[in-house]
Amino acid sequence: MLLADVGASSAHLAVIDLSQRMLARTEVDVAMHDGPEPVLRTVETQLTHLLETMPAEVPVRAVVIGLPGPVDGTHGIPVRPPIMPGWHAYPVAARLSQTFRCPAVLENDVNLRALGEARALPADQVPLLFVKVGTGIGGGLVSREGVLHHGADGAAGDIGHVRVRGAPDDACVCGNVGCIEAVASAGASRGGSAHPGRRSPPSRCARSSHAGTPPRSRPSARPRPHRRARRHPGALLQPRTGDDRRRPLRGERRTAGRRAQRRLPARLPLATRNLVLTNSVLGEYSGLAGAAVLGIERVLSTDSIGQLLAQRA
Asked: Domain 2-109+285-312 maps to which CATH number in 3.30.1330.10, 1.50.10.10, 3.30.70.1280, 3.30.420.40?
């Protein structure tokens, strides 16, 4: 099985078997603003190279790819992704299916991370909202049953272009102003702007659950725009947010807690009673973990299991 967790500036690629054993893995640079042809060519070339490194032939049962923007998983196409010019309606799943002669699954990259994170946690630590802060900002929702919540049109969790009340009127790549992505993304946190062609620092991830606390770290001097930007995810994503393992979440916690207290009586903080803001347990590999879950579920689905058994007979 082939997996591709593609971000704005890099892609994690892997080959696994049906027991979720990692057979090969690599990371490559990509530039989503270059368009689908060069990016997918790189992904296909590198996945093929990984297959060629196997000591024996590995049958490809499915390909799963995550992209950093809204996608229509049913038709296997991106849908007007703000930081991916030229990708709208491109047949990503169809192309990969033809290249590797197997079913292909397209999913939003943050949804893959949310699913991977949820499956790595104890059952009592879901539902959760996973938040990724990098070149863009996105969220993935996993239900109490441990499945992705896509919403009516597949856009559930697509929070990056929601306007934040009280935020400055910074211009966003989507054409609006004051979006959370414009004021709290990696570029905005540095006091600049999120540009699709600019390589951002490692994406910030989040999970929430009913237990666990973030690791402590020494406070560091950060520019004021960064500290201000950190308040906005807490305001928008309350009651369940989180962040990268490399720094504490004091700003987000304070904002979420204050707003919850204003909405509810102080003696009954229902929105935050079981709230935990904490860090990803899988880090940068959560996307590959989620892709593995989707791929295995696809191969072992009722529509595909018969074909698999026939091939092994």
From this structure: 3.30.420.40
Closest to 123 (Cα-Cα) out of 151, 150, 149, 143 = 143
CA dihedral (256, 262, 265, 266) in degrees, to 10, reads: 60
pTM of the full structure: 0.76
Amino acid at 184: A
Domain segments of the chain: what residues? Answer: 2-109+285-312, 122-280
Angle in degrees, 0-180, between the axes of helices 92-100 and 36-52, rounded to the nearest 10: 30
Per-residue tens of pLDDT for the chain, all 313 residues: 999 999 999 999 999 999 999 999 999 999 999 999 999 999 999 999 999 999 888 889 999 999 999 999 999 999 999 889 999 999 999 999 999 999 999 999 999 999 999 999 988 888 899 998 887 888 999 998 999 999 888 888 888 888 888 778 888 888 888 888 888 877 665 555 444 444 433 333 434 333 333 333 333 333 344 444 445 554 444 333 334 444 555 555 555 555 545 544 455 466 677 777 888 899 999 999 999 999 999 999 887 777 777 666 5
According to DSSP, the residues that pair with 6 across neighbouring strands are: 11
CA–CA distance, 203 with 160 (Å, rounded to integer): 14
